[in-house]
Amino acid sequence: MKPPRFAYHDPRSLDEALALLAEHGDDGKALAGGQSLVPLLNFRLAQPEHLIDLNRIGALAGITRRAGRLHIGTMTRQSTLEHSALVRDGWPLLTEALTYVAHAQIRNRGTVGGSVAHADPAAELPVAFNALDARFRVASRRGERTVAAADFFVTHLTTALEADEALVEIEVPPTPAGTGHAFTEYARRHGDFALGGAAALVTVDESGTCTRAALALLAAGPTPARAPEAERALVGAGVDAQAATEAAARATAEIHPTGDIHGSGEYRRDLVEVMVRRAIELANERAVSTREAGRSANGASGG
Amino acid sequence: MERAVADDERRRVEVEINGESYSADVETRLLLSDFIRHEAGLTGTHVGCEHGVCGACTVQLDGEPVRSCLLFAVQAHGRSLRTVEGMTDGLADGELHPLQQAFHEKHGLQCGFCTPGFLMSLEPLLLDERELSDREIREALAGNLCRCTGYQNIVEAVKLARERVREPAETPPSP
Ligand SMILES: Cc1cc2nc3c(=O)[nH]c(=O)nc-3n(C[C@H](O)[C@H](O)[C@H](O)COP(=O)(O)OP(=O)(O)OC[C@H]3O[C@@H](n4cnc5c(N)ncnc54)[C@H](O)[C@@H]3O)c2cc1C
Ligand code: FES
Ligand code: FES
How high is the ipTM of this complex? Predict the structure, then answer.
């Protein structure tokens, strides 16, 4: 349970880090919070010759809002995101998702970008970012590019990042007025990776009609996939129990989670379906109550 | 034969632990938990799983509880750590930190293997001004495993220590 030998680099700037990533290519690996990578090293499941530690690059951490959009530096600790009032007010789906991520000691060290780059299909943040239509800003010596969530997650533990690239920032657009959020999951023990779960965003108009929905599935396949057909099916009417049930069935009709000792593939599929239904119902409830709160606030100020 | 350690696989590390400075030339792959135990000789920090699951190795890095088995010693260079040994700094010989005293009185430990990790994880709760429900206390200790106590007495100990720290008793607790 001791890691293999490696050459250690602790660059002080992104430029320096990108130069090291370019130099070492497949023999190098970025080290963020280390909460996934160090266990892999301790088990010797990963044996990079060079570790490029991003922890001393202060510019890579931070949470800001610019032109309505949320910008999260890749090295922002998960606990910082969890406790950010800015995030809780504007993007509460992220705050709720984080309550399911590991334990406080791990969130104190684990980074937001590390979770995204690790791309575990049972990880909560990638699912929440996918539901929120987040975009990932990636840099290398060759230049910068921005990748949408749908293109970023390629398969189990694999992203669109090339060996010489680093994730730099995650950019999240605002959600429209009248949006409710929900993150649901089931795990054997609190803090364990989930057996199944879902993120939902439901937007309703003044009359309670659903105008927009986003659904992303947790631990349902090799990537944190969206469910576009089910999203479309929710739009155009109020979301009642039947609509939520039907959308959940549609969202999970084509998924094939793999089974393991904690549950068969079939069990997990059913579990995800229940989690999607509950997420839709809770998100809709919250959307409707923000509309109601808005109306009574308007009524009070008008009267 | 094993190959020699290359130059870029070694580093000089200087860390402050419980207010004292420790330094050593170490391999870059040395885990912080092993630095604390073998280089600094502070064996109060325990090692259970070495992959982040059990919490026995929890220490405070610049005041925040973290897993010392998931950090390399080189990453702590120039930073300040607190381990379980630091809890009795400045106290009279034999006197315990309020959280340790509460663990003792409430039977929050049996074999004691997990205890240093629990203490490091839970100490920040004593400074938390908010009212905390049992559920919140349980969430705070969910990242530490204990095979002996069943956790209930640990929750009781946290509550007792918080009461005492927030409203200091007039008379010291009887032994
Ligand atoms: C006991 C335990 C329980 C956990 N439970 C959960 C859980 O329930 N849910 C959950 O989501 N996670 C869980 N985690 C994982 C945790 O959230 C990790 O922190 C996270 O997955 C990885 O983030 P990190 O910053 O620690 O990254 P690292 O471990 O440092 O890196 C992970 C991978 O991403 C790469 N990488 C990191 N940053 C970049 C970057 N900027 N550019 C390019 N590549 C990069 C690294 O090279 C590495 O391959 C758990 C971890 C532990 C130890
Ligand atoms: S030894 Fe570090 S968490 Fe178990
Ligand atoms: S007291 Fe024995 S493991 Fe906790």
Answer: 0.92
